[in-house]
Amino acid sequence: MIFIHSIIHAKHLQFFTLSTMLSLLCFLLSLLFLLLLPCLRPCFSAKGSLKDKKKIDKGTYVVGEEEPPKGLRRELMPRHVAVIMDGNRRWAKQAGLLTSQGYEAGAKRLIEFAELCFKLGINTVSAFAFSTENWGRHKIEVKCLMYLFQRYLKSKIQFFQSKEIRVSVIGNLAKIPESLLGIITEIEDATKSYKKKHLILAIDYSGRFDILRACKSIVKKSEQGLIREEDVDETLFERELQTKCTEFPSPDLLIRTSGEQRISNFFLWQLAYTELFFSPVLWPDFDKDKLLDALASYQHRERRFGCRV
Amino acid sequence: MAELPGQIRRMSGGISQLIEQIYGFSRRCLFRVISMGPIPSHLAFIMDGNRRYAKKHGLEDGSGHKAGFSALMSMLQYCYELGIKYVTIYAFSIDNFRRQPEEVQSLMDLMLEKIKSLLEKESIVHQYGIRVYFIGNLALLNDQVRAAAEKVMKATAKNSRVVLLICIAYNSTNEIVQAVKKSCINTSDNMEAYGNDKHEDRDSDIEGTDMENQEKRIQLVDIEENMQMSVAPNPDILIRSSGETRLSNFLLWQTGNTQLCSPASLWPEIGLRHLLWAVLNFQRNNSYLEKRKKQL
User: Fold this and answer.
1) Cβ pair B257:A35 closer than 8 A
2) B36–A contact, CB cutoff 8 A
3) Which residues pair with B87 in a beta bridge?
4) H or E element that contains B135
5) ipTM of this predicted complex?
6) Tens of pLDDT along B42-59?
């Protein structure tokens, strides 16, 4: 009625136009929804999970066995897996626990994750424990995290020694407490001789600062006459990054949990050809099955490095 | 009676034009609704899947890339209509030079043809007032392509409405190394000038301080300024088609906080719905990102 009324009266022309627009928009939005419907499912599901993925037989994998589970091939295992352990705080909130308990669960999950990776034949595991940007969080939360790192690392020195896992910590480390720095030095010294398994913890790390440090180191070396400017290329540059501590500085696979799809200033240079796997699962829930899914996805990918089709 | 087929053709041509106009109008209305929320200022595309598209449809080699170019023109149109100011595309990587020589040559020929077409009056460049940049190690390109690229950059230098960055003969690691080299050269030039000034004043030994100062003076901002991509802000969204989820040495420095999307469609099949989905996701995550930016 208002519609017809407004047609008759010229002074309501503006209202007529507005209501027509609104009806048209509602129609368009529903049309849009229909168009987007085919895309909704693939967008919601974990990025990187296959439509026709092989079924992972949960029952056949036994902890302590060296053979990879069915569906995975040992020769296609990544040599270096990186992980952004996102979702601890949300996990704690969902479970009705304190944030610190969320972080504890996350730390525990990391140890299990690393152990599993090493059992599957993966040489290096790197984990984004604390970003330079995380200093902006609440002071108490940051203090709690630092204390957690200290306590956990101290309690695990014997564990790493018994499993022969080399532990390295990379990052700026300028602002971390002295006591944590001391534990880091202790654990690095205690495990530096191990070669087959390497756990890298990125604490107070930023991909951009890593590149900047490499740049400064190159400048210093060129001033000292150790390198010539014309020798500076990508290979030389890579050797100056903090990941020089490992034989495989570039991760083959990066896993980020909790559904966020960004790198968040973790490895930047090193991720040039890394396969990215985004999982909607929160980090403390990222168990053995989820890891096997990620590895299965990785093994089915075709890595072309810009060349063949 | 002989005029009937002609009349039918004209009518169907008229109808399809009308449908196109209605579609365009609906699209612009939709964009108006979406722009009620935050719109990304910079979108980057990795145009993956052209060769697989040609294989899938049994087309000859090279046709996939041509189809990809049409898809690119449509996407650019949608982006600029939506109000996105900067669009970056990964046209050709330094790694792609390692492909078969015939394929590389045909790609170079196609790029030369398309770069030249950007200068035509009816091209999208004139329609939207696009400023075009070619980012990459242009010395690796053949003379013709390089000359055409430089001509386009010069011809569009005065445009300022929207920007198109075409990454050609590009690798992010190469870009970073070049930027680092440039920062070192700039800094050592500054230090020489500084050192010369100081020597005029007094004889004191300042070499030790020099090295310290030189290290201190190379800051993040120095490297950033010398990046070829510094003409645009960091991308808000990076869309890679064909379902592959990797960066392939594209904008590594710049995509630290970029939202990554990887629709399964091959690049020539990419459409409006993929762009809309990426933008809607961006809007959903935006308030979190703005909070984080304030924390930094």
Assistant:
1) no
2) no
3) B43, B164
4) strand B130-135
5) 0.84
6) 999 999 999 899 999 888
